[in-house]
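Form P-L/3: holo structure prediction, ligand NAP.
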Amino acid sequence: MKKALVTGITGQDGSYLAELLLSKDYQVHGIIRRSASFNTDRIEHLYRDPHDPEARLFLHYGDLTDGTCLRRLLHRVQPDEVYNLGAQSHVKISFEQPGYTADVDALGTLRLLEAVHDHLSATGKPVRFYQAGSSEMFGASPPPQTENTPFYPRSPYAVSKVAAHWFGVNYREAYGMFVANGILFNHESPRRGETFVTRKITRAACRIKEGLQDQLFLGNLDAKRDWGFAGDYVEAMWRLLQHDTPDTFVVATGEAHTVREFVEAVFEKLGLDWKKSVAVDKRYFRPTEVDSLCGDATKARKVLGWKPQVGFDALVTMMVDHDRELARQEKTLRAAGHEPTTRGSTHG
Ligand code: NAP
Ligand code: GDD
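OUTPUT (holo model):
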């Protein structure tokens, strides 16, 4: 049985990746942060009591800012594959917390690579490492972006991801480590964090439809993104680590839409006129914006045989259906006199 160690397992991608790996009979070890409130909602359905002989998902407390605990966990778990998905992943928030973002996203990757390198030297046991790179690294470089497009990062988040990317490449070249670098374009799902634009839109539009909210405030409606489905993208991560040689791959759909087009598609699906409910608020603008991302994933198609299964319309439908159901449940609870908390809709 193969063993995988996953940072960021409680996030959107971590939860889909854990599902995929469990379906492939891996033993999965996830690193979770201690939090005053539960942060394991996305993986609750996968978790079993560790005393259960059938349990194959194990959670360990740890943090990318704590190199000692990363070393200890590598030693304890002895993984075959490490997926480094943990990050402060919100671009706008990285302007407010640049130091923390760099510590987790750039130095955190370095700490984990160092721990894997030392573990390799001590045990001789090969470990394959996946680094979660981002299309944000291309930033101001115009589309279509490929593996050969120069990086031009436009936020502390993106600069940190560029550093992490090059740490990975350097450990590959310097020590012959198997470090595979994914450069993934935006990918979404019903499990997307509520302050990323797609989920912010689908949640708000569904609440507007159910009479729970009147308005939705957004930032730059002209930005273009290449949006895919997270479930497809974790399959690409896994394929990167099954390939014979460690390499860098762009993972994208090759189709881009503006934020305005995403809004239109969502409101149209709900039979609503978006212009009546959506207003622009400059607080959601970024000091430096990434205007246009559209990836060319030809290399991943040819070398890994990967291609996305879920297109733009199916993604919008999936997210709207999910959030419509949540809004209906909220309405029922409110009608019965309960006051459910509505989280985070005004942030990010
Ligand atoms: P996400 O939903 O924001 O999840 C991030 C995960 O990282 C969470 O599990 C979070 O834990 C964890 N984390 C945050 N700070 C940490 C720390 N100091 N130590 C350890 N773990 C920490 O992000 P995602 O969308 O799943 O993305 C996964 C990875 O892919 C990230 O590295 C992201 O930057 C990158 N990426 C994402 C996309 C995309 O479109 N989704 C595209 C390209 C690259 P908590 O649950 O406790 O907060
Ligand atoms: N979050 C947010 N909130 N974004 C908004 C809003 C708003 O109210 N209004 C407009 N936008 C625009 C942003 O300015 C950006 O151009 C675009 O919508 C997408 O924003 P996000 O959904 O926050 O994602 P992102 O593209 O900045 O970053 C995501 O994708 C990256 C890959 O390209 C994150 O998942 C990153 O972690 C990931 O690396």
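COMMENT: Residues 89, 91-92, 134-136, 185-186, 195-197, 200, 218-220, 223, 225, 259, 284, 286, 289-290, 293, 348 surround guanosine-5'-diphosphate-alpha-D-mannose (ligand 2) (CB under 6 Å).
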